[in-house]
């Protein structure tokens, strides 16, 4: 598992590298709204439909780590190791 200090250092170095490269190399830096009025309208309509149909609330939260049986959930050791491997791979690409 990567230490917080190592991750922080990689993020800092990445930001420094981006700053040194200059504004010309940055993507999507225009100060424009990220959503157009049609997107806003579509999201409102989707919310109204989900509210009217009693769709269960969606959640990205992990399962409760206080549960006794965590096999096969997002709190399982194997799952957490796999997630940390992905995080490590992303941070390795930064440096």
Terminal Cα separation, in Å? 16 Å
**Could you spell the SSE succession in H and E letters?**
HHH
- Would you tell me the structural class of the helices and strands? mainly alpha
Could you estimate the helical fraction of the residues in percent? 40-55%
Number of helices: 3
Largest sheet: none
- Strand count: 0
Q: Indicate the overall shape.
A: flat
Summed over residues and divided by their number, the pLDDT gives a mean of 80
Which parts are unreliable, with pLDDT below 50 for 5 consecutive residues or more?
Answer: none
The gyration radius over C-alpha positions equals 20 Å
Percent of residues in β-strands: under 5%
Report on this model:
- The chain is mainly alpha-helical and 95 residues long.
- The chain is built from three helices and no strands.
- The model has no long low-confidence stretch (mean pLDDT 80).
């Amino acid at each position: 598992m990567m230490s917080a200090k190592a991750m922080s250092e990689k993020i800092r170095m990445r930001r420094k590298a981006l700053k040194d490269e200059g504004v010309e190399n940055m993507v999507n830096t225009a100060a424009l709204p990220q959503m157009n009025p049609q997107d806003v309208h579509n999201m409102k309509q989707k919310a109204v439909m989900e509210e009217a149909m009693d769709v269960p609330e969606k959640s990205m939260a992990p399962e409760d780590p206080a549960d006794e049986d965590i096999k096969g959930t997002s709190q399982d050791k194997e799952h957490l190791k796999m997630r940390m491997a992905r995080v490590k791979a992303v941070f390795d690409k930064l440096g």
